[in-house]
Hints:
Layout: H1 9-32, H2 51-56, H3 72-79, H4 90-95, E1 112-114, E2 125-127, H5 133-143, H6 149-152, E3 161-165, E4 185-189
Antiparallel strand pairs: 1-2, 3-4
Amino acid sequence: MRDSQFTDDATSTIVVRSETRGSRGQILKKKKGVASAEPETTGEPVAGTQQPRIEARRDIGDLRIPDNPLLPFQQLMTVLPEKSSNLLPTPISKLMSAESETLGEFFPEDFKIDLAGKKREWEGIALLPQVDTEKFLSELDSVLPEIDSRILKRNTVGKTFRYKYSSKKLWTFKSYYGDIIENFCRREFLN
């Protein structure tokens, strides 16, 4: 789509709803198993000049988004492959193994890749078993006591921020990972 096609709020709403439905569709495909490799979006990127207008819109119509999203470790555990399990705390990464008695079936070493309309393997969609969210959550809850409390602080849903560039130096950005003294970024709360 061209920028000129995004001229009014009605068009913006259509684009936002379409992209949200597409993203939600891809999540549901991941959760329920892939029935088709066809995307549910228009396939067109959101135009750069329209981005601020679309980001400002909160009206996504009749789409229902859950009030209680999965926590970060829960999300990562359901989407990361076994080879990336080292990105999560050790007790969780042990669950993400083909040898795991409880969740091993969800982390197969060999799996098919749907190449429908694709030329390269990395462009395809990995066909994995349907995720049993309740089973994942139950197993994750059983290992959480083994994880250091400092690491568990990362496993929370926090506030949503937007950061924007500022031409002048602002406050020092304090972080668990180190402070940023030369900060040229303005923070706004979105919640």
